[in-house]
Structures are given as C-alpha cells and as structure tokens.
Sequence to fold (275 residues):
Amino acid sequence: MQIPADVLAVLTDPRTVISGDRVAVPFELGRDLYGRMNQMLKDIGGRWDGRKAVRAHVFPFPVEQFMRDCIAAGEWPSRFEQGWYPTPPAVVFDMLEHASIRVGHTVLEPSAGTGSLAKRAAEEMGIVDCVEIDPRRAHLLRELGIARQVIQGDFLGLDPLALDEPYDRVLMNPPFSNAIAHVMHALAFMKDGGTLVAVMPESITWHLDRAAQDFRKLIADNEGEIVKLPADAFKASGTDVHTVLLVLNGGPGSTLPTHGWHRRQPVQLDLFAGV
Ligand SMILES: C[S@@+](CC[C@H](N)C(=O)[O-])C[C@H]1O[C@@H](n2cnc3c(N)ncnc32)[C@H](O)[C@@H]1O
Fold:
C-alpha cells in the first residue's frame, strides 16, 4: 500500500520519533491526517497507547528498521496483500483433530503468521518448524519460543531435498491467492506416511484451470478429504472467503508427491550440458 504524501511528511518530520518498538508524533495532526496515519500504523501491527508516559503507537516487534524500509519505498506491506488471515480458534481446533499429532511428531507450518496453528501443534508436544515470509511475524514467532526453528523467507523458494528428515505432519493455512502451489510444495517436505491438513479457499473444489483440475485428481486418487467450513469461518480474521479443510494422508499406495516420492525420481542427467 502506498504511504499517502501527507503521512510520509509526518513520518519523516524531524520531531517524529521512530525508535525501538514505537512511533511517537509529538505534535498535533488534523483529524483526517491522523486517521490515515493511524490506519497505516494499525495495518502494520501497531496499537495506540494513550498512557501519559507512552503516547505512541506501540508494535510487538522492533519497528525502526522496518519503518525506515517502508519510508524509503514509499509503501508498506499490507497484511491483506500478504494474505495474512490468522486461523480462527474453531478452525484450529478442527485441524488439530484431523492432524492427530503425537508426542515427538515433527510438524511443519510453512506460512506460520503469528503462530495460531504452530502454538497448538507445540502444545500437542509436536516438534514444530515454522516458515514465514514477513519479518515482523517471523520475529513474533521467535519471541513466542514455540518452534524448534523459524525460517524467515519465501517457503516456495526452499528446497525440500536439502532436508534430511521430512515431517510427520504439515499444518498450514497458506495465502489463499496461491494456495495450491503452497500445498503442492509442502507435500515435498512430508514423510511418506505423513498427514497434511490445510485450510484452502473453497474455489479449489470448482475452479476449471489446469492446476485446480490436476489438484482435484490428486486428492481423489489419494482418498483425500475435503471438509467444507462454515461460510463465516474467517469473518473474525477480516475475510468472507469461503474455505475448506483439506486432509491428505500419505499411507501405503499413495501417489502424493511427498519427500520420498521426490527422492525416488530418477536423477535427470543433463546430457546436453556444455553443448
Ligand atoms: C492466511 S495467513 C495464515 C497465518 C497462520 N498460518 C495462521 O494460521 O494463523 C498466511 C501467512 O503466510 C505468509 N506468507 C505469504 N506468502 C508466503 C511465502 N511465500 N512463504 C512463507 N510465508 C508466506 C503471510 O505473511 C501470512 O502470515
């Protein structure tokens, strides 16, 4: 989202203090301008703390470098643009039921947000690894201390074959705009006998494009389960997108492209290398 010119002027005003976890503007702003700035700072994750000793927007992560980057770019990454819709508790509950995490199971959360799913997986005594593209949310995940490791980066850019030990369980609520690609990539991190439970947009059940058709065939061939969620399941997170839960088990006879499946593919010899 582009930072409006007048908000940018406030943020770069020498009197404005951006430091540690807060942004403080020690001068009066008109009502409209304050509204626009408040909206931006809230979207980034800040909250107004009006106590006399604070009087600043306070963030749950160090905001200084982040704001510097936003100001230099003239824009901020909106939570909606990044597809950040935290999984509501009722959906998390259903997902955990399907995942049957046992003590010591390794669990991958490849688009972990602020950890709604990862937290519960850790409470079930799973050993949880998280991936999250957004540095603010990755920072929060580390602060929570629930994960064995938190990788900040693009999950789709991670190489599954660089991994020695694939995961028993994958729990995910990927960005809805690219959900099939995320789930297909996540399967490559799962053990042959593992289970993947994903929230996906309902459109995967009827979209006519090639990727959606192939995906439905893969689900059917592997007796995957698609469970429709209530229409308002994500209302509390700010979206009316209709969603389903996908459950895939990589048991005997499975054709899912798991980590083992990828390992078993013949190595492609580059016969024309150097020609
Ligand atoms: C729908 S939210 C779900 C958050 C979390 N899984 C939960 O259930 O509360 C999707 C998350 O994926 C992150 N994300 C988007 N693209 C990503 C990518 N390519 N790699 C890793 N994380 C990504 C977003 O920043 C956002 O936090």
